[in-house]
Amino acid sequence: MVVTIREERVRRVADAVRSLGLEAILRLEELLDPQYAALQGLADAVGRGAAAAYAVLVAAVSYRLAMRGEEWWSCASQLLSGYPPPRDVESLRANVERFLAECRGSIIAREAKVSRVRRLAAGARDLLSRLLSDADLPLREPGRVLEGVARALGSEREAKTVAFSVKMAYYAARPRGSMRPLSFDLPMPVDVRVACVSVTSGIVEVKASYRELVREPRPAQQAWAQVSRLSGVPTPHLDSLLWVVGWAPRDLPQAEARAAIERRLREASIPPEAARSVATELTYVPCR
Question: Domains in the chain, ordered, with CATH?
């Protein structure tokens, strides 16, 4: 796969994101990201620590889903909220296995997902136990969560579900109204939405399909890390922005996608000029 990072486009996208600002993106997460809403509902039911531990395990098996991501997290929140609250890692693992058996979103490769949960629960036992008793751990030491999950799964830090586990644990742990961001050193999880926007924003140029970036995410992760550094917005929060608006360049023609992104950002009370700038820079070229 031949991928080129385009420095000029990185700077233009970073300028647009900087005009938006980190506080606006944190507000956007609360108002528009259904994953945050689902995990806050779970935290209300079982406590922030247990919700963060659940989030680590569920995020690690959030692949090859038979439903949209927002539906998956809603299913997780509803089912896990109804089970007896986990007392320890064993009951935590058992509840997640029960969720996998009952949620239709896990029907593809369900046995592999169960095996992965068991592997993570065994290999990251100390981390999960700590999360159950220390809900602020993902806020205070996200790198510790990242390393613990990667080591337990034998995966690289850049692996999509590894980085995603940290982001979802943070969502569960961060109370509503908190303006406490994550640190800068988390790799961007590159799913099809992020891969598409990586191309449509022009920050990377791919000779083949944008889907190649899902299989080999490092060029996109490097480009978004540069956007993060230049804009002052940590990559997990860039990921939130792309999650909320990233469906549009993939599903709509370029001009319609630009208008849809601008409207969506205005729903979070983003000023019109900043919303227009972000929408324009994220739809620089069509998705292909």
Answer: 3-30+184-282 (1.10.1670.10), 33-173 (1.10.340.30)
